[in-house]
Amino acid sequence: MTAPQSSSEIAYNGSMKILVIEDDREAADYMQKAFAEAGHTAHVAGDGETGFALADAGDYDVMVVDRMMPRRDGLSVIAGLRSRGNTTPVLILSALGEVDDRVTGLRAGGDDYLTKPYAFSELLARVEVLNRRASARESETVYRVGDLELDRLSHSVKRAAREITLQPREFRLLEYLMRHAGQVVTRTMLLENVWDYHFDPQTNVIDVHVSRLRGKIEKGFDKPILHTVRGAGYMLKSG
Amino acid sequence: MALSLPAIMRTTAARLSALYFLLFALCAVLLVFYMTSLSARMLTGQTQQTINDEVLGLARAYQSGGLPRLVRVVEQRSRQPGANLYLIADVNGQILTGNVQSLAPGVLETDGWTTEPFSYRRFGEGELERQRNSTADQSETQPGQSEVQPEGEKGHNAIALVLRLPNQMIMLVGRDLGEPERFRAVIRRALMLALGMMGLGGLLIWFFVGRAALKRIDSVSEASRRIMGGDLTGRLPVTGAGDEFDRLSENLNTMLARIATLNEGLKQVSDNIAHDLKTPLTRLRNRAEATLSGKHKPADYRQALEGTITESDQLIKTFNAILMISRLEAGYSSESTSRVDLTAAVRDVVELYEPVAEEAGVALETAVDGDFSVNGNRELIGQALSNIVDNAIKYSTDATEKPSVRVALQRVGHDIRLSVADNGHGIPDDADRARATERFVRLEKSRSQPGSGLGLSLAKAIMTFHNGRLELLPANPGLSVIMSFPAREDH
Fold first, then answer.
1. I need a labelling partner for B125 at 20 to 30 A (CA). Which of B32, B168, B311, B464 fits?
2. Inter-chain contact A100–B348, Cβ cutoff 8 Å?
């Protein structure tokens, strides 16, 4: 697991209140500490029943739920919360990473799925993106980050009023990065959301796509806008 | 194999033989019973007819000459040999004339046909009997129906017509039943013989047919005991007769082969874990240990930790690949399959790798001949194809001409064929090519390249999961990896 990036590297939109439902004490403590270092508050529940009670009573921004737990398994906790009208975004943590398991997890009401073992940077990036979903930019038709502008309807991209021509996949890549501007986006998140693949390619194909996109949106402009976050991923940020 | 009687009776063959024997015996008894009763009734009818004729003759004698003539005719006929019985008695039942010496009591009391055969003693027989056995007195005076039957020597059975003459005297005309009884005895003997032969037949059938089946089953049990003992290479005997036993054995053998494959896979996984995961784990541990011992600058610690993370990430990848291969080989749930647009899948993967290829100076070309779809899992197909394309790009860079990778999708016969061909050095050796899809096999040339040695094995497992094949063929120059999917029925 990667140690969390220092908070200066990761820009987060305020502090989040996170509920971690995980029976592995050590893993839970580590998560709590790491979330705190990233500027968030995390509460830990050691089993499904306690987790359900906490989630039902508290007002959390995001929940991280382990799938296999004593007393009550993670999927049942999520399904129970959803049936009570709780819409808090949930990230499922599981040792089961097969295609079927992912589908079952998402069907039970999970919003994202991460297979153990995972890098904490990956977990943090996903949790922050999930939180942002609560105030999603889904409805906006034009995304703006600094002088970069993306029109989702006309599929046009401009930077400093200069038209930039992108391939369809590059457009989707930029769209995803802009929707989560100011947040770390990992390579796997890009592969999942832009290409809809959940496997690890042998070569880091995503890096090449990103650098190509970077060439198009940064070449000829004096300020970099697409930043690489070491050991984590990428972030689109002005200035 | 020596079997005790209870053990024999526990076999299906013996039980079936016994059951059939009982059923046939029951049928035979019923049939014989029905036939004897039918023929007995016919014989009785004949006997009654004869008696009626006799009575008619006597009635004529009575009409023409009265009682004296009747008595005379009776006496005359009594002296003639034959099965006919005649008797005239007074009102009290005292025998006056005829060829009957004694009768079962009560026969003369009711007129008309006797309802049951009765026992009697013919005139002249009693004396002989008395000389032979002095104790016969009792049975003579009171010969009960039940006593007479088994003592066939002493008395005879007969049926008779009892008439009352106008002067209240009693006349009996009857006929001995010796003939029908002999007939019944013959039938009974025939029945016993038939039952005996059936029993013998049953035993023979059991011995030759049942024992043969039993032996086959025994050999199957023997073989399965051996296999259960741990010898998974053992197979059940197949005689080649093509009968039910052979079919059963063949099916069980197929099942055993599948189990052996799975078992082999499991063993391979544990071997792989032992070898290919322990090695990097040891490296990881050693690196940590080396970093801890001695004084280092903070930057060195950082570098060591980063190296540790990179190495563990690689380990996780390897571990995931091993797990995935074994899950695929053990059979995935069919729930995860659906119609997959193969043309789109190819386009997606090629598009994913296009920048990488360009950066490596490799021309990535596609030749897709129409729209194809297969039953499968898009994710898995994408992973297999991306592994293959990844390899092709890596190994085409040493091409003598301009490096190129060509991805082609076309229909060949009943297969949808997806081929990835590079123009690198390929794998010239046939044996190496065959080995390339095995787990953790990294051919000499590829040792310098990053990778776990699982890419092609995973692709192969994915193709097997799709009921397809993965073949490696020389492309002269280079290597052509062919993924063949069975075409969808409705396509």
1. B168
2. no
Total domain count, chain B: 3
A59 and A112 part of one domain: yes
* Lateral strand order in the sheet of B479-486: B363-368, B404-412, B415-422, B479-486, B469-474
Q: What is the CATH number of the domain that holds A120?
A: 3.40.50.2300
For residue A2, the chain B residue with the least C-alpha distance is B309
Instruction: Let me know whether A33 and A49 are in one domain.
Output: yes
pLDDT score of A46 more than 60: yes
CB contact under 8 A, B309 and A119: yes
B352 and B299, same structural domain?
A: no
Of the ranges B166-170, B303-307, B439-443, which one carries the lowest mean pLDDT score? B439-443
β-bridge partners, B210: none
Tell whether B345 and B281 lie within a shared domain.
no
Which chain B residue has its CA at the smallest distance from A116's CA?
B316
**Which residue, chain included where needed, has tokens 């975004």?**
A89
Residues B412 and B480 in one domain: yes
End of a domain among B150, B165, B188? B188
How far apart CA B17 and CA B199 sit, in angstroms, is 9
d(CA B294, CA B301): 11
Strand, helix or coil for residue B33:
helix
B351 in A contact zone (CB under 8 Å):
yes
Q: Is the Cβ of B11 closer than 8 Å to some Cβ of chain A?
A: no
Report the chain A residue with the minimal C-alpha distance to residue B379. Answer: A197
Mean pLDDT of B240-263: 83
Statement: residue B283 has pLDDT above 60? yes
3-state secondary structure of B344: helix
Closest CA to A144 of A127, A123, A161: A161
Q: Which structural domain, as residue segments, surrounds residue A186? A: 142-236
Instruction: Write the pLDDT tens digit of every residue in A164-189.
Output: 999 999 999 999 999 888 889 999 99
Q: In this predicted structure, what is the pLDDT of residue B155?
A: 65
| Residue at which a domain ends, from B329, B349, B365 | B329
In this structure, are B35 and B163 located in the same domain?
A: yes
CB B376 within 8 A of CB B340: yes
Among the partner-chain residues A99, A119, A201, the one whose CB lies closest to the CB of B390 is A201
- A8, part of any domain: no
Asked if residue B346 and residue B266 are part of one domain, the reply reads no
Q: Are A120 and A31 in contact (CB under 8 A)?
A: yes
From B309, B336, B348, residue closest to A2, measured CB to CB: B309
Q: What is the pLDDT of residues A102-124, one digit of tens each?
A: 888 888 888 898 888 888 889 99
Residues A211-233, mean pLDDT to the nearest whole number = 88
Q: Are A25 and A36 in contact (CB under 8 A)?
A: no
Q: In the predicted model, is pLDDT for residue B375 greater than 50?
A: yes
Q: Is B359 on the interface with A (CB under 8 A)?
A: yes
Which of A110, A134, A158 corresponds to the end of one domain? A134
Domain membership of residue B202 (yes or no) is: no
Mutate which: A100, A190, A199, vs B, most B CBs within 10 A: A199
Of A5-14, A25-34, A206-215, B148-157, least confident by mean pLDDT is A5-14
Question: Which residues of chain B does A117 touch, with a Cβ-Cβ cutoff of 8 Å?
Answer: 312, 316
Does residue B196 fall inside a structural domain?
no
A chain contacts of residue B356, beta-carbon cutoff 8 Å: 203, 205, 208
**With the CA atoms of B298, B301, B307 and B311 taken in that order, what torsion angle do they form, in degrees rounded to the nearest 10?**
-150
Q: Average pLDDT over chain B, rounded to whole?
A: 79
CB A60 within 8 A of CB A18: yes
Report yes or no on B201 lying in a domain.
no
Which of A90, A106, A134 is the C-terminal boundary of a domain?
Answer: A134
Average of per-residue pLDDT across B171-191 = 81
Query: Which of B351 and B149 is assigned the larger pLDDT?
Result: B351
Is residue B266, in this structure, part of any structural domain at all? yes
Which letter does DSSP use for residue A62 in this model?
E
Whether residue A4 is contained in a domain is answered as: no
Same domain, yes or no, for A214 and A120?
A: no
Contacting residues of B for A96, CB less than 8 Å apart: none
The CATH code of the domain that includes A204 is 1.10.10.10
